[in-house]
Write a structure and sequence with these properties.
single chain; mainly alpha; globular
């Protein structure tokens, strides 16, 4: 097993802790891996780490910062690198979720212009999603967020409530987070 594979194995184990309901254990593992990877480490690892670390943040500004790191890292990832992890993956397929997460962050922070901009960017990459549960979950979450944005703007709201949806598209306390 290569060092790259060991790192992804550790990331997957930390994701497993998160999904099993151990956010603190997951956050601790992600932090350790993030510190080892560093800002110049493997961009695929940084993208995945930041994407999942964002989900563990209590503060919306911190969540936004991690989601931005995930997007920045994705911009440096190639398809060949993603396919080293799984042959069926394409980096373009990450963008609908990455932009949706940023849209949800901005929505939560009351920045509807940025939320709309990231929803539009998410939609630009929707053709990269398969017609499976994951793809349908992302598409549904985008539609729910668009509805929430329209409703909030129609009411003249300047802030929006917290938002979260798991990576499998199942709503936790907000139907926009993936």
């Amino acid at each position: 097993m290569t060092a790259e594979d060991r790192t992804m194995k550790r990331i997957e184990e930390a994701i497993g802790l998160q999904h099993a309901g151990d956010p603190e254990g997951s956050r601790q593992r992600f932090t350790e891996i993030w510190e080892e990877t560093g800002p110049d480490g493997d961009a695929f690892h940084r993208c995945v780490l930041a994407h999942y670390m964002a989900d563990l943040q209590q503060n919306p500004q911190d969540e936004l910062a991690w989601d931005r790191l995930a997007l920045e890292a994705a911009d440096s990832v190639t398809d060949s690198r993603v396919q080293e992890h799984h042959a069926s993956l394409s980096i373009r397929g990450f963008y609908p979720s990455l932009h949706l997460n940023l849209a949800a962050d901005h929505h939560r922070l009351g920045d509807y212009a940025q939320a709309r901009a990231h929803v539009a960017l998410s939609r630009q990459h929707m053709d990269a999603l398969r017609d499976d549960d994951y793809g349908q979950g992302i598409r549904s979450a985008v539609q729910r967020l668009e509805s929430r944005l329209a409703a909030a703007e129609a009411e003249g709201c300047t802030t929006s409530p917290g938002a979260r949806v798991s990576d499998d598209g199942v709503s936790t306390n907000d139907p926009t987070r993936t």
